[in-house]
Structure to design on (301 residues):
């Protein structure tokens, strides 16, 4: 039987990751697309209208998963930053590089869908309240991570800078989470908490859960695919890339 | 104020577009990276 430490050490191998991740990507993409189709149709046509917000509450089924994942992806980058600072694993650096654009797109989606939801609900698409402003800061942090990675020459220097920025910026995730409790905001407080029962009817909770799972699966698949692309790009000259791409000496005629 | 369905469909359309970009971009990058790597490896083999 393969031990946990063997799996951990093997997962640091570029070749092992490249070959082992193909099946995962396929299944995560299929599961993500299926769950999102079901969740979106459920949210658009079968979930009831909200008592106070009416039909526009249906935007929640895409806004909440995007906002939730935008923060989770940042936490994953920060955790990868800690691992890189301690163990200097190349795959962890590749993971940070692959996740930053995905997190940036998710934060942009959360901001855009929130603004669209705000117009019929609040009468405005934007207010400088704590939740919205801290999410905008998260969007800029993602841009900072992408820019730092692109601006610094040398993978080691860039990975060090990205790790430190990711760790420092992780404070903002705490601020986003508690902004609705610490400050008087237009944004509503969280309806789902780890400690207690959800303050949401099951008719809303189930389609939301399906969409959240779909987002998770699709983003995980996209992250693995982006890591594979980054890996091939960096190791283009190595032997393992030659062997997986089946490139060999030309046969004499 | 427009009809609520305008905002709902706008939000869902943007969501589908962004998710499609998130899902397809890495696949396109992988294809490009593999093509470049194959070209580079062939050059290395020819050079050797």
């Amino acid at each position: 039987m393969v031990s946990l430490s063997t799996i951990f050490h093997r997962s640091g191998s570029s070749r092992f990751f490249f070959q082992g991740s193909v099946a995962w990507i396929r299944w995560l993409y299929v599961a993500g697309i299926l769950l999102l189709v079901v969740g979106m149709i459920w949210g658009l046509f079968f979930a009831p209208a909200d008592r106070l917000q009416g039909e526009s509450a249906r935007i929640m089924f895409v806004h909440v998963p995007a906002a939730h994942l935008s923060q989770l992806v940042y936490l994953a980058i920060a955790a990868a930053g800690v691992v890189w600072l301690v163990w200097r694993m190349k795959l962890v650096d590749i993971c940070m590089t692959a996740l930053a654009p995905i997190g940036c797109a998710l934060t942009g989606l959360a901001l855009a869908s929130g603004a669209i939801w705000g117009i019929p609900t609040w009468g405005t698409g934007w207010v400088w309240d704590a939740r919205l402003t801290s999410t905008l800061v998260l969007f800029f942090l993602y841009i900072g991570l992408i820019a730092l990675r692109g601006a610094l020459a040398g993978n080691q220097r860039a990975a060090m800078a990205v790790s430190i920025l990711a760790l420092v910026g992780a404070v903002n995730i705490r601020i986003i989470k508690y902004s609705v409790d610490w400050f008087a905001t237009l944004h509503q407080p969280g309806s789902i908490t780890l400690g207690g029962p959800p303050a949401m009817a099951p008719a809303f909770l189930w389609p939301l859960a399906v969409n959240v799972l779909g987002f998770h699966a699709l983003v995980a698949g996209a992250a693995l695919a982006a890591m594979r692309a980054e890996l091939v790009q960096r190791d283009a000259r190595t032997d393992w890339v030659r062997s997986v791409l089946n490139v060999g000496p030309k046969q004499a005629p | 104020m427009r009809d609520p369905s305008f905002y709902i469909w706008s939000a869902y359309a943007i969501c589908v577009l962004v998710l499609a970009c998130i899902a397809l971009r890495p696949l396109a990058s992988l294809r490009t990276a593999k093509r470049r790597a194959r070209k580079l490896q062939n050059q290395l083999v020819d050079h050797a």
